[in-house]
Design brief:
heterodimer, A: mainly alpha, B: alpha/beta, 2 domains, 10 helices, 5 strands, binds iron/sulfur cluster
């Protein structure tokens, strides 16, 4: 089982650690999209990390849209470590969505 | 307006209720912040309407934070407009200033200022002077929202590209009180180099104003590049309201936004 090679995995302790700053930084450095994957809602080891992630992503998507960046470049999904096939499906799907959107305007702006 | 405020301040100072009144003073044609401590010396006290209403405002709450921290048992008066009061409530809620250390002295803004600010509440709850003007909605935000995505992107990039990274927007902001600023953290952006990393430099500041920005507009006024920052932060406040059902400074001071996330229905 393989996930698409154009996906760069960054491991963190909890999706609650993924601050909007990091997502913005990654977009600024040329990523065409960011997929945030956390544990299923209600199953956070730190109780509310994924709830925070959900709110942050929701807010950031709206800010991106307001500033003219397609909010579809950011996606959040909930998966457990036992769901490798689902991860592969979600990742593949996301890559397809991003492909349809084309290169990020942050990358081609110059 | 000035006279009513002067009388109120004199009364507060003479009764010993406050140790000082943080307001504005005009001297040699300049308006700046000043801590009045003597009820007989209120000469020069102004509310910041120099040539037109509200043209010489100042983030007084930012100074108040320092004053009350330096004197944790003292009680101080402060001049507040609608936005300043929202700021105070938010600072109380986030533990930056203790409410028992503050006596706000409120003034309502005239209609033309409320119009120019697109202010949702151009008056404080309690006011000593001025008549409550009509609230206005965010027309500048609606204008951006009427555009297509690529048009918005071009607009903001053109605006942001004027930024000289002076940090004036952050420095003047009465709600920016972190001791370490992400905008000066090398893990998040390149420090000391121009142009700013656009649009991310500004989007980072915008997302950090979530739950904080009380729409005073000082950032927009101070920006030497005239970037419509206020429009961006007005939008962030709208987003916070949609996601957290509250807008900083408009509700009760006890519940700062962002804390009630457990047990909520989440959509994404
Ligand atoms: S005040 Fe204006 S020029 Fe200065 S850093 Fe802020 S946006 Fe840039
Ligand atoms: S309008 Fe600008 S200066 Fe005022 S609170 Fe919001 S971000 Fe800060």
């Amino acid at each position: 089982m393989q996930y698409p090679p154009n996906l760069r995995v960054v491991r963190v302790m909890c999706s609650g650690m993924v601050s909007p700053d990091l997502i913005l930084r990654v977009l600024s450095k040329g990523a065409d999209g960011v997929l945030v994957v956390g544990c299923h809602l209600g199953e956070c080891h730190y109780l509310e990390g994924n709830l925070m992630a959900a709110k942050r992503v929701a807010m950031l998507k709206k800010l991106l849209a307001f500033s003219g960046i397609d909010p579809g470049r950011l996606r959040v999904d909930w998966l457990s470590s036992a769901e490798a096939p689902t991860f592969v499906r979600v990742a593949t799907e996301f890559i397809e969505e991003i492909r349809a959107l084309g290169p990020s305007p942050l990358r081609v702006k110059a | 307006m000035d006279d009513k405020i002067k009388m109120k301040v004199q009364e507060l100072l003479q009764s010993g209720k406050i140790k000082g009144f943080l307001g504005l003073r005009e001297r040699h044609g300049q308006v700046g912040p000043y801590l009045f401590t003597d009820g007989d010396d209120l000469e020069g006290l102004v509310v910041g309407d120099r040539f037109k209403p509200g043209d010489s405002r100042y983030p007084l709450n930012k100074q108040l934070m320092k004053i009350t921290r330096g004197d944790p048992s003292g009680c101080y008066g402060v001049l507040v407009r609608g936005c300043d009061e929202r700021g105070l409530k938010t600072l109380f809620g986030s533990g930056q200033i203790k409410s028992e250390q503050v006596v706000p002295v409120g003034i309502a803004c005239p209609q033309d200022l409320a119009d120019a600010c697109e202010c949702l509440k151009p008056y404080p709850d309690e006011r000593v002077a001025g008549e409550a003007a009509e609230p206005r909605s965010f027309a500048t935000v609606a204008k951006v929202e009427a555009m297509e995505l690529d048009e918005r992107f071009r607009l903001w990039l053109a605006e942001f590209s004027k930024c000289i990274k002076c940090y004036g927007c952050r420095n003047i902001c009465p709600m920016c009180y972190c001791s370490e600023c992400t905008l000066e953290n090398k893990d998040f952006g390149d420090i000391g180099s121009l142009p700013a990393e656009n649009p991310v430099f500004h989007l980072t500041r915008a997302i950090h104003m979530a739950g904080r920005c009380i729409d005073c507009g000082l950032c927009n006024e101070v920006c030497p590049a005239d970037i419509p920052l206020r429009t961006l932060y007005k939008k962030i406040a709208d987003i916070v309201e949609e996601e957290f059902h509250c807008r900083p400074g408009y509700g009760s001071p006890e519940t700062p936004p962002g804390l009630n996330i457990r047990g909520e229905e989440l959509k994404h």
